[in-house]
Amino acid sequence: MTHLQFADSLSRLGTESAFTVLARAQSLAAQGRDIINLGIGQPDFRTPDHIVEAGIKALRDGHHGYTPANGLPALRHAVATDLHRRHGVEVDPETVVIVPGGKPTMFFAMLMFGQPGREILYPDPGFPIYESAIRYSGATPVPIPLEERTGFAFEADRVLERITDRTSLIVLNSPANPTGGVTPRAEISRLVKGLAAFPRVAVLSDEIYSSMLYGGREHVSLLQYPDIRDRLIVLDGWSKTYAMTGWRIGYAVWPDAALDHVTRLCINDHSCVNAAAQHAALAALTGPQDAVAAMVAEFDRRRAHVVRELNALPGVRCPDPGGAFYAFPNIEGTGMRAAEAQDLFLEEAGVATIAGTAFGARGEGYLRLSYASSTETLTEAIARIRAVL
């Protein structure tokens, strides 16, 4: 009998429960059950046609080989131009690194700054891969509590008070997954001012939902703060904004001191990003943006509908999400814990949601629902939940 000797570090690696719930939902569907999946976080729109055609053309034109490890020069230049257009900031294209999605940037940052004896701060509730990658690096994860009373925006003082001489990195996310929380400019400015006392602490700002804001809310990119640019990593990409989740392409802006390190990580990890996907991403940034505006407007309509319907359920209250495409209703009034409600709604109502505890201990009492589905589908899903309640 074989006894494989796996590395101890694998025991520290977590997972993303959305994919676990997706697998269960697909299993039930294969058994003939009618399942509505509000668990997975991806737009239900098609990638705009001009982007798809650019990818096809790239293949037909013979772009089948390797590209530079940090991405095509034209694409990195387009990213810098787009960041200037959206945020009014100057970015050197040489500091832009193209990667296969958003997660490589997270992992590279954790590997670069995490090791035993160090601490990394991250949002709770927050995207589960933050904590997973921190633990894998050997560092100690230190949660930044996010609360419903602030709309799940982080509070600068609560971040700053958690910094110690062991802190090497802070992870921030606005607009946020899973809560839809958006942190206002005043709070971000207060944090940046406080970070002056901790010059050795790096910052990873996950801004993947930066184009998805509602109700007149403003996205404040940390790139707008020159004082921290020399220790700031900004994560963004195409998956959410352009409905390109399956294309697996994202980017980050890195500080100069980290560029050699991240390039070597890219070479060791994936060599380079799929060439055709990079040409498609270039078309996304340089082509018409009307599809993005239409998608965000539709998400806004769905958001208002979902919040209204959820707040009408017995024992449920749902704060207004300011960005992304997630609702994060409080279900404490139902008397159920998060995991119990997740399982009940999937097994009895045929509606896949994600327990708030999948995003951290402070997610107890909440569920995440993605409203990246049609209004008709959302209406049916909430009607089924109402019947079970």
Automatic annotation (TrEMBL):
GO biological process annotation, one example: amino acid metabolic process
Domain of life: Bacteria
Keywords: Aminotransferase, Pyridoxal phosphate, Transferase
GO MF, any single term: pyridoxal phosphate binding
InterPro entries hit by this protein: Aminotransferase_I/II_large, AspAT/PAT-like, PyrdxlP-dep_Trfase, PyrdxlP-dep_Trfase_major, PyrdxlP-dep_Trfase_small
Pfam families reported in the protein's UniProt record: Aminotran_1_2 (PF00155)
Domain Aminotransferase class I/classII large per the UniProt entry, residue ranges: 34-385
Catalysed reactions, as listed in the record: L-aspartate + 2-oxoglutarate = oxaloacetate + L-glutamate
The enzyme's E.C. designation: 2.6.1.1
Principal EC category: transferase
Cofactor: pyridoxal 5'-phosphate
Keyword Transmembrane helix: no
Family named by the database record: Belongs to the class-I pyridoxal-phosphate-dependent aminotransferase family.
Protein name as it appears in the record: aspartate transaminase
